[in-house]
Write a structure and sequence with these properties.
Elements: H1 3-9, H2 11-41, H3 49-53, H4 56-82, H5 102-105, H6 117-120, H7 124-130, H8 132-162, H9 170-173, H10 177-203, H11 223-226
Helix pairs in contact: 4-8, 4-10
Length: 227
């Protein structure tokens, strides 16, 4: 495979990987200079750049965004197994709710040539592979949530020390108003974005996008029904 073909075949993933790295790097630089300004105002010596990137403050800011994003996908993937929205290309057709048959899912004896090995397998391997997307999304969400809570506990402890009060334990911090304020402000925006995408895609179109129905498809018809 030539480099040009590899780039073309993976352009969508590479595009968002590049955006992610640029945004993460920009966040690190902007956050570092913000910390330098705050430390200077209080007459304190700021940490170096790499010290800031490894600090609980930066870890919390990154992790709280990651966990909300992966929670969004985890819930959306799981919800679309059993729930439908007529006319949305983000949904199965009404009447198709559920995990579907082996024939529909091309597993076991219905697996075509070139199918993944575990799709041909039986027992626990097929169950694991058949739910692997939810498993990975849920795992990343849980780990990001844990990283956010642990980093937030450290930050809360540092702030408590500055005010001469006892530092909270992890168990105390994860039930605190500060933790849930930071958490829920991210969750509500993710849920709003998914819900509006599902609803808007019923009536609005984007020519050439895989996330949109063909422009002339009736509103009540999904992309699957129109094929």
């Amino acid at each position: 495979m030539t480099m040009r073909r590899m780039l073309r075949d993976n352009a969508l993933g590479l595009f968002f990987l590049l955006l992610f790295l640029l945004a993460l790097g920009g966040q690190a630089v902007a956050g570092y200079f913000r910390q330098v300004e705050e430390m200077t105002e209080h007459g304190r010596m700021p940490a170096d750049f790499f010290g800031f990137v490894l600090s609980p403050d930066f870890v919390v800011d990154v992790a709280e965004n990651w966990q909300s994003e992966f929670l969004q996908f985890f819930l959306f993937i799981g919800a679309t197994i059993w729930l439908v929205q007529r006319g949305s290309p983000e949904s199965k057709n009404p009447g198709d709710e559920g995990p579907e048959s082996d024939e529909d899912q091309l597993v076991g004896r219905y697996a075509p040539d070139g199918a993944p090995r575990w799709a041909r397998a039986s027992g626990w391997r097929r169950v694991v592979y058949g739910n692997s997307l939810l498993i990975v999304m849920g795992t990343v969400f849980a780990l990001s949530w844990l990283a956010q809570s642990l980093g937030g506990t450290i930050v809360a402890g540092e702030e408590a020390a500055m005010h001469g009060v006892p530092a909270p334990t992890w168990a105390e911090y994860v039930v605190s108003a500060d933790f849930w304020d930071r958490t829920l402000q991210n969750w509500q925006s993710e849920f709003l974005a998914v819900g509006t995408m599902v609803a808007f895609s019923i009536y609005l179109r984007q020519r050439g996008s895989a996330e949109s129905k063909p422009v002339g498809t009736p509103h009540a018809v999904s992309a699957v029904e129109s094929e």
